[in-house]
Give the backbone structure.
Amino acid sequence: MIHIAICDDEAPVVRLLETRISALLKGTACEIDSFLSGTELRDSILTGKVYELIFLDINLPDVNGIFLAKHIRPFIQSS
């Protein structure tokens, strides 16, 4: 199963990405978690959730996406 996170503060963008990713991965077992803030995504990762793929907006109102990526990188398992 592929675990995917989408993080964007604009709900229509999140819905669009969910739809397109699901269509592209049709027939592939995947789970998509969506977040409207960087803080929510960070908290999910810090509590142990693992994602193979993260779609992360750079301009988030609560935290800069680049800063967040650097912060969560040590918690992302690479294979």
Notes: The chain has a mean pLDDT of 93. The beta strands are 2-7, 30-35, 53-56.
